Amino acid sequence: MIFRMAIHIEPARIADFHQVLADHPRYWGDRDLRSLHVVALVQEFGPTCLVARAADGIRGYVFGFVTPDGTGYAHLIATRDDTRGSGLGRRLYAAFAAAAVRHGARRMKAVTSVANAGSIAFHRGLGFAVEVVDDYNGPDRPMAVFRHERPVDLTEG
């Protein structure tokens, strides 16, 4: 018999932020992205910083916010190594989009390195348009910029 653990998506707490950092390799492997994790995101934008919680801990998270022009910006999204391929990333994005809309978002945006083929495929699968923007992250540092004009569409499909 296969038992599926219940996963609940809810606003992140400061303790969750610190747990995510402590378990960083479970989400990001060998890539050290700890410098992109800023506790102020959870402190100041709590309703749009979400964790996917199960009995055995945080299975995934999305830290984001809504910009003054109505863009829901997903700064970081990750699922734990034992949860990948389960659809949790899509669920997290849908929950983030719903929270962002409640806080005035009319569109979505995210950014990743041009070498991150997994993230590019994931975002395209969600219906995001992708554009490589030269110098986005400084001179000679292009980034893949994702845009989705209707965040409610993320819950479909």
Automatic annotation (TrEMBL):
In its UniProt record, a GO molecular function of this protein is: acyltransferase activity, transferring groups other than amino-acyl groups
Keywords of the record: Transferase
The organism's place on the tree of life at top rank: Bacteria
Q: Where is the N-acetyltransferase domain?
A: 7-148
The protein's matches in Pfam families, at most eight in alphabetical order, are given as: Acetyltransf_1
- What SUPFAM superfamilies does UniProt report for this protein, alphabetically? Acyl-CoA N-acyltransferases (Nat)
Q: Could you tell me what this protein is called?
A: GNAT family N-acetyltransferase
Q: Which organism is it from?
A: Streptomyces alfalfae
Classification lineage: Bacteria, Bacillati, Actinomycetota, Actinomycetes, Kitasatosporales
